[in-house]
Design a protein that fits this description.
By secondary structure, the protein is α/β, with parallel strands linked by helices. The protein has 3 domains: about 110 residues, no CATH class; about 230 residues, Type I PLP-dependent aspartate aminotransferase-like (Major domain) (Aspartate Aminotransferase, domain 2, 3-Layer(aba) Sandwich), CATH 3.40.640.10; about 130 residues, Alpha-Beta Complex (Aspartate Aminotransferase, domain 1), CATH 3.90.1150.10. It is about 40% helix and about 10% strand. Strands 2-8-7-6-5-3-4 form a 7-stranded mixed β-sheet, sandwiched between helices. The protein starts with 12 loop residues before the first helix and ends in a 5-residue tail after the last helix. About 45% of the residues are buried.
Amino acid sequence: MTKRDNNGSGLDRRDFLKGFASATVAAGLVGSREVFADADSAAVRFGRGLLAPPAIDATPGTEKYWTKVRKVFSLSNDYIHMNTGTTGSQPEFVQNNLAAYNFYKSQDPRDWSLNLAADFPDLFPVVPSATGARQLLVANTYGANADEIVLSYNTTDACNLIFAGTPWQSGDRIVTTTFEHPALAGPIAWARDYHGVEVVMIDMPSNFTADITVDDVLGWFDAALSVEMGAGKKQYLAISEIFYKNGLRLPVPELCALARSRGAFSIIDSAHGWGMLPIDCHAYGADFIVGAGHKWLCGGPGTGICYVRTSDALARPLPPFAMGNFFIYGNPFVAPSALYNNRNWSPALYMQSRGEYNVTALYAMTDSLSFFAQIGIENIYERALALGNYLKGLIVAQWGPEALWVQENPDDRFATGLTAFNPFADKHNGASFATMNSAISVILRNLALETPKIYIRSVSWRSSQSVPADDRVGLRIATHAMYNNYDEIDHVFARLVNQVNLSGLAQL
């Protein structure tokens, strides 16, 4: 190995590896914050080599265990982050690895990947390829085949790829809901406007009460999916797994099975799923699942995961699809392309290869996933639900169950780590929307000015399709298993009650 000027001091790269090995061990015992806090070594260590996910030296499931997990993140003690539904916080070892990927790539643009594999063989796998190894990790974690996984940039990017690749025709139908995020709602409207696709929206209830059942939800959708289609027309179910507005989780496996029974394909927006839910792509039975890497998975901005079904094609015909990405579709000298009107291609290759993509950011996202997998995806989900249900209990004790937009349901298939609520007596009065919305804006601003700083958000929506503008509003709090805890929830809720009292508006 030739010597390289890695840090301006003329030291050999191998000299740094010893420091990194020590940093990895230390991170496993005390968390990366303490490692990087060492002023004498931080400048040398950070971003010059890869770190493994820290091992947590505590009994799994205990509060001590989760406290040590929290130390892997760089969130300050004077900051309470409860808006993971908008963006998460990267683990510090992932921040280091992202810097290292960029450092190696800038140092040797030709062989940076080979250099990383040589220097960190246990942390930088290259089989079947550097990107393929990351796709395999995602597939193994989330119940898919590696060739079905595309590392995307976010939910919006993946939705655009899917809608652009679907051969929409006039008379096709999309069944969706009134609660969709623009990442999905925008492409749906595009298919309607430019291709004559019929859009049927299910009016979701603003107040999702504890007595609503999975069968009730299936009935709402079956009424739309069972309407007879014209000959040769396609039907799609396009819905969010978790509504960003109120935190409700839909029973996706059951809805996908219902869609199949009605001859429909399924597109699932799981923007909040990766990192929060124990998703099993094959068990879900969906044709497409898209989601963000920067939210609950804490993978950093501009990252995501897109699942495109290629399996079980004999039992369940694959949806017509042309990859939605034309970088390696074909060329003007061969007509038509060999890929025309067929699904004999791997999404992991043909959708992944779309020009110079931000490979270093996507690798960092999968490093975060490796840490989540080490903790246990199911453990993370159960912790998030426990924290969310604890928060719901505080809200009910203060204002009653009517304050919750989604009440705690005996069926956990509806439960998530997102809680939306409105404590005001006029929560259902559309004429009071502007007043309540203004009061909530003041509450959020004041909470952000406190010490510790509190970061939550507001959400709003239409009560029905017939309402021309938003007339429902609420506060939304995200309880992340990896870095939120019961003490934070107690503190945030006490400060929130104080701010609601100061608003002067009548409460429930």
